[in-house]
Amino acid sequence: MDIRIGLSDSPRELAVSSSETQEDVLARVNTAIAEGHPTLVLEDEKGRKFLLRTDRVAYVEVGNSSARSVGFAR
């Protein structure tokens, strides 16, 4: 699944590919922000970890990753 996170005061966004479900990711982000946790850790499919400051999260976009077709096949 593709996760894109917009950060305040930054023109770029963070893109993470995760094996977690949409509900799990949104629940973790929502809980961290609602409970006032200073940071949130997300892990991608390759095992890399991303540490985010929750007070800087502007938006979170969660979507399914789809395989792109290559060539002339329909």
Automatic annotation (TrEMBL):
It comes from the Bacteria. It comes from Corynebacterium qintianiae. Pfam families: DUF3107 (PF11305). This is DUF3107 domain-containing protein.
